[in-house]
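Expect sequence, tokenised fold; for instance:
***
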Amino acid sequence: MGAEKSAAVSVLTPANLLTYSRLILLPVVIVGVATRSGYLAVGAMVVLWITDLLDGRIARLMKQAGAFGKTLDSTVDFVLIYSLFITFYAAGRLATYQFAFLYLAMLTILSLQFALTAAGRDEVASTTLGKVTGALQYLYLLFLVAMEVIPKSRIVSIVNIVLFAALALAIVLNSIQCVAAMRNIVRAGESS
């Protein structure tokens, strides 16, 4: 019983609780977008962003960084990013072709994770372009939330096009890397 309690306490760190708080704030952003309450969405998104910036720093500062916290952070980011992209699409703020690119990103990284797990490899799916693609997704998501309150203008439209084009290119290249990695996993399984 003591070891179980110790393990539970070791994951209940301030940094992990801060990471987890993003899941609690996620519905607030969703409601803000769905009800066109832009300032509610922006306010909650700012808090989400700040917690994302702070959780890792706090874990390292308190010497509590570990595998659980890293996995929790990436899982929460994944849930947050794709939940909000689905929300923006359902609310009519993303075109179908844009959502198709974003869905491709989600589908390929999840497929790679499934392939790794099926091959008995205990690792988190990653590619060389994964962090760049994730950062661009987060940036584009922040921009979409900001567009809920900033006035529409030609400059905003141009920034939207440029940001999405960069994100789409990163998604395609990252997806190619995911497919190549899956192919390598299958080949390695066939040769053993």
